[in-house]
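dude i think i finally got it to work??
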Amino acid sequence: MNQFSQSRVALITGGAKGIGRAIALDLAAQHWKVAICYRASEREAHDTAAAVTDRGGTPLAIRCDVSDPKACQALVQQVEQAWGQIDALIHCAGPYHRVNLMEETPAGWMEMFDHNLHPIFYLSQAAAPGMKARKSGRIVTFSMANADQMVAQPDVTAHYIAKAGVLILTKTLAKLLAPHGITVNAVSPGFIDSGSAPPGELAGVVKRIPAGYVGEVKDTVAAVRFLLSDEARYVNGTNIHVSGGWGI
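look at this
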């Protein structure tokens, strides 16, 4: 029996679109209660909430700027007040922009850390006490497939450094929370057709992927589904590449 079978609650940041939406719908099919956190995508968030209901889940769409630590605390409190607990915290929010490092602005630099790295700290710290009290919990973070390679990234420098930081933070949280029955793992996608990139851009990178094709959202969802399962109870602090061999 899955340890979450009695009452399962997930909080997904970036849950309105792309990979976050796909995870929400997958959990809905397993009858999870799913809190969909969004910042600006209100219409998409409510569309996803309706789809969660259609698939057998219970949705809650919440607007939150996860770069704000106080807002993150309030978000966790709102979900816990609504449903009593958070069993899975899934960090899908992670915008990026392409700009040469020498042309990057201080605001653009900070934005990458404020939305890719810092929210994982804020939200994990806020959700951990409830998980520790129940001796159970799953935290899933998102990095990128080559973030562990520590290579030069002239056009996505801040984003890349933030994603490398996600891996260090993931391992640290895993070590600290393991004694309390909580696992913390990272998923690192490569090129995934999540609907955010122009088809031509994805077609152009196929030759760089050893598997010979661009991944689908379902490939990433499968990794998250595994990490939330009882089969992954002893998997902690790891980084799962979902990249067809790219970035390794």
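Residues 1-5 have pLDDT under 50 and may be disordered.
im so relieved honestly
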